[in-house]
Fold these 3 entries.
Entry 1:
Amino acid sequence: MNKKLEGKVALVTGGTTGIGLATARLLHAEGAQVIVTGRNPSTLAAARASLRGVAEVLSSDSGDGAEIAALFAHIKHQHGGLDVLFLNAGIVRDGLIATMGEAEFDEVFRINVKGPWLALKAAIPLLRRGGAVVLNASINAHLGMAGTSAYAASKAALRSLARTAAAELAERGIRVNAVSPGPTDSGIINKIRTPEAAAAVRSALEARIPQHRLGSIDEIARVVLFLACDDSSFMTGEEVVVDGGMTRV
């Protein structure tokens, strides 16, 4: 059976953990040469070990313009072009509007909005006709969940960016779509909560999801693959929600 991405070059930003890591493995399994980025030294080291023979792992701050420029210069030199771009890197910072600090707000937008915009800008000259861009948004863009003002707004901005980029890149034969995961068992809840608080959050989320569970990183990765390959060839500017029915039922 032919692989869906045979001979393609794919970049996954924020690909050393969670959804990005699962997607990198799947894109490789479908024939792509994969590059992943991250900025945390410990997760970079772990990814270099676990992705040996699967993906090239590079250190790159997804919100830093100079590092983004260097990343795409490297891809141009080593690979000549790019076929799949999964703009996955992002951070979560909780806080009520009344109490969140300005620096926290700015950091969320630096990583979650400015970074993908800069990466897309740098990628455009390298993206080959027939290529695909996938942005990792979130169902938080559609919800009024207290404490998520910066994160939700940043993901709404990404959803908007996908539409605009789809319009601008259509003549180049490049499709741009967004995946919007619901609560996913990616480890992020445990990163920003104590174990007790994380367990309470999971329980509350599972109660709101019709399937009564969190999604898996592999389930999200399969949707990214769908948007990245020719199975979705007549889709651009679209958002695919993957949330177990949380916002749809």
Note: The domain at 9-187+217-241 is CATH 3.40.50.720 (Rossmann fold).
Entry 2:
Amino acid sequence: MIAAASRPQPETKATEMIELKKLEKSYPQGAQRLWVLRNVDLSVREGEFLSVMGPSGSGKSSLLAALGLLDGDWQGEYWFDRTAVHKLGARERNDFARTHVGFIFQQYHLIDDLTVRENLELPLDYRNLPSAERKARVGDILDRFNIVGKKDLFPRQLSGGQQQLVAVARAVVTRPRLLLADEPTGALHSSQGDMIMDLLLELNREGTTIVQVTHNAAYAARAHRTVELFDGWLKPDEAARAAANG
């Protein structure tokens, strides 16, 4: 894995993968609406590692859910490599997300009554892959993440760091182009958090585009770029920088 002191360098020739235009998200609140995202314009390049920061309630997780198509109830434009995601129907969005996006959650979201191997196989079950290829992919990911010896254990038999390692492995077993991480180190102690960050940096170096939400300034600084949200708005200076870099 990459040493903890290493930092990935931005790819100068990278093309734009994601473009959000005036993305907004709100909930009804009595006679008014509670806005959690307001006029978000943001571009993310192919192969970029982007950190999103901001106080609690600023809209970070809502932004990540929109990017990962976990939530389709928003307004605005979302372009993914020239695909108009905002024009897709619900089923098309689900299929698109399964094909292109991997998601890492803070609380792991592993299935308690499935073994590590079965948890890794689960996202592949949604794809039309031959059985031999599914087994090969799971075998490769178990080996790469050094968890072959854990394959028959259940999540409750693993430490927090090991569970998050399995969660990362599950997110990348489908070989997504975009990896989204919602506070991936938030529930871990420092050495486990460093391990997960090193792994994310390695995946990014190999070409995976990553957007992470984090409260940890040191981890955020290891990305290529950081944007900040406040009350659903991108901070003006960061929005300008995002537009310039896009």
Note: DSSP finds eight helices and ten strands in the chain.
Entry 3:
Amino acid sequence: MGLKNIYYNIFLFSILLIFITIILLPSTTAQNYYADIIIEVDSSGFVTIDGVTNHPDILIKDTEIYTSKKQSYWLLNITKEDIFSDFVYDLSLPKGSSINYIKSSGFISIEENEGNLFVRGFGINETFSVLIQYQTEKLTEDKIIDLDLIFILLMVVIIISIIILVVFVIKEKIKDEQPKSNVNEFKGLNQRQEEIMNFLIDKNIAVTQTEIQRELNIPKAAVSRNIRGLELKGLIEKEQIGMSNLIRIKKS
């Protein structure tokens, strides 16, 4: 009778051991994943995930596999079906973004700092999932007006510059087309008379005898004598203003 009890107890113990093994087998064979990560999303939809984790494919750099865009709406979807014993993440969206819809495993909080949106979350013994629909910053009416004003001012500056350039070119062309007196056409001039005539032609305005004397470094008596000679030849005309004589090229 005692031997039968021993066999019976061994049988019950074996059944219990098998039952416990079956129950605990999934938890002992499953990978115990964890993650402490930073998720960054740029304005072009590229995602970078960095941090510490033992999950084989959660860390990634500059990828578009987690984002899609329809019209002005972006969708971010990072989902891992594996069970994480614990996870913590900080997620930053592009500057000026606004969230339309968000769903995440675990617990989340949303913070804003200087126009940047941050989503922080954590979870225990569950899958990792973040689903966010968001929009990036649109041009406000004031910004559109500012851009229009800048464009108008730029066009005004360009038009004024073109007008000034055209006027300058026309004036230079007219100046080049104006006939210029040539001393070589006049015969019978001595060297100093040629110097005086060239000086008057270059100035193209009436000048005093004193100015001719100073600029050409000719003695006063020589200036008076040669001006008198040019006047007799009908090449220049002299006008007395007060104590000074104004000399100019004689008009034809």
Note: The CA atoms of residues 96 and 137 lie 5 Å apart.
